[in-house]
Structure formats: C-alpha cells, structure tokens
C-alpha cells in the first residue's frame, strides 16, 4: 500500500494565518485558494488548523460574529498526526475512527511535515485501476 508521505501536501505548501486573524479573513483566504482548511500559527509556529467544519460548527451554529472572532477561538488543536511511513489505509482508518477530515503527517523527529485530507484519499482511490 502507498505510504502517506507520497500523497501528502508538504508543509512548505501550507497556507497559514496568524492566530489573531479574524475568521472572516481566514474564510476569504480559504475560498480564494479553493481549500477546506488553513493552518493557524503563533510566532510562525503551527498551533492548530481551521477547517470548513470548524466554521460551521463553532462559528455559524454558535451564532458568533465572523469579524469579531479570531481563528484561534474556533480552530481545532492540537492537530492529530500520523507517521509519514504509515499507509493511506492507516490514514483512512484513523480519520474514520476520530471523525476528522484532515490529518497532520509527522516526520521521523515528530515534526509536522505534511497534511492529508479525505479529499486526497478520494483522489487516490479514484485513480486506482478498476477490475
């Protein structure tokens, strides 16, 4: 089976925002970039992830104002990770077990080296040869 590291989005491609950015600005960046999540930083270090699900469940459903709420207030943290050498099937199983759609990928030293999403898994599975 294919290892996660061969299909992940590498950390150098992450789109990030500072923790003090308001949710509306982050959502506009996500829309313009065509992505469903954005990483949240403090002093340049990733501290969490803001996903489209966070926007719905923690902002809209809670009746919060997007320009008055910071991304740090509604982000998911800490980021759940999987080792880069685990398989895509392992990633799928972990996402299903934890009910999440974005999974950090950790390198040999435990650092965040990438991210994989349910969308990435769907693309991979769609391109498998059919019998």
What descriptors fit this protein?
single chain, 131 residues, alpha/beta
- The structural class is alpha/beta
Would you report the number of β strands? 7
Mean pLDDT: 95
Q: Please give the domain count.
A: 1
Pfam family, one: CBS
InterPro entries: CBS_dom, CBS_dom_sf, CBS_domain-containing
Protein name: CBS domain-containing protein
Organism: Candidatus Nitronereus thalassa
Could you give the topology of this structure?
Blueprint: E1 9-10, E2 16-18, H1 23-33, E3 37-42, E4 45-51, H2 52-60, H3 71-74, E5 81-83, H4 88-98, E6 102-106, E7 112-117, H5 118-126
Parallel strand pairs: 2-3, 5-6
Antiparallel strand pairs: 1-7, 3-4, 6-7
How would you describe what is shown here?
The protein is an alpha/beta fold and 131 residues long. It has one domain (4-126): CBS-domain. The chain has helices at residues 23-33, 52-60, 71-74, 88-98, 118-126, and strands at 9-10, 16-18, 37-42, 45-51, 81-83, 102-106, 112-117. It has a four-stranded mixed β-sheet. It has a three-stranded mixed β-sheet with strand order 2-3-4. The protein is globular, with a radius of gyration of 15 Å. The two termini are 17 Å apart. This is CBS domain-containing protein. Residues 8-66, 75-131 form the CBS domain. It holds the Pfam family CBS. Keywords: CBS domain, Repeat.
Summarize the structure.
By secondary structure, this protein is of the alpha/beta class. It is built from 5 helices and 7 strands; from the N terminus they run E-E-H-E-E-H-H-E-H-E-E-H.
């Amino acid at each position: 089976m294919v290892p996660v590291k061969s299909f992940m989005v590498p950390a150098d491609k992450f789109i990030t925002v500072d923790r003090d950015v308001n949710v509306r600005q982050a959502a506009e960046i996500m829309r313009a970039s065509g992505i469903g999540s954005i990483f949240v930083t403090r002093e340049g270090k990733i501290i969490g992830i803001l996903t489209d699900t966070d926007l719905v469940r923690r902002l809209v459903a809670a009746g919060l104002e997007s320009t008055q709420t910071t991304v740090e207030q509604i982000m998911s943290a800490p980021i759940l990770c999987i080792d880069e050498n685990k398989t895509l099937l392992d990633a799928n199983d972990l996402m299903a077990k934890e009910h999440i759609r974005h999974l950090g990928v950790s390198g040999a030293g435990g650092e965040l080296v990438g991210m994989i999403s349910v969308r990435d898994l769907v693309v991979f599975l769609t391109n498998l040869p059919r019998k």
